[in-house]
Design brief:
mainly alpha
Length: 64
């Protein structure tokens, strides 16, 4: 599935698509956030940041 189809599905509030995206990218997001917050953040901080990214993607897909 290409990026355009993903964005259209998200704009249409396709809950199945956001679940697919979270499944596909959550590990990558976790690694990125953990590398930024190394020695300054807790596991809970990392979880919150990752969740915030997906929430923002759901609410404001046009920003991505």
């Amino acid at each position: 599935m290409n990026d355009e189809k993903i964005l259209l599905a998200i704009k249409d509030k396709d809950e199945q698509m956001i679940a697919v995206i979270i499944n596909k990218y959550s590990k990558l997001m976790w690694k990125i956030v953990a590398s930024v917050l190394v020695n300054v953040g807790t596991v809970q901080d990392i979880e919150e940041c990752v969740a915030d990214v997906f929430i923002d993607f759901w609410l404001y897909p046009e920003k991505f």
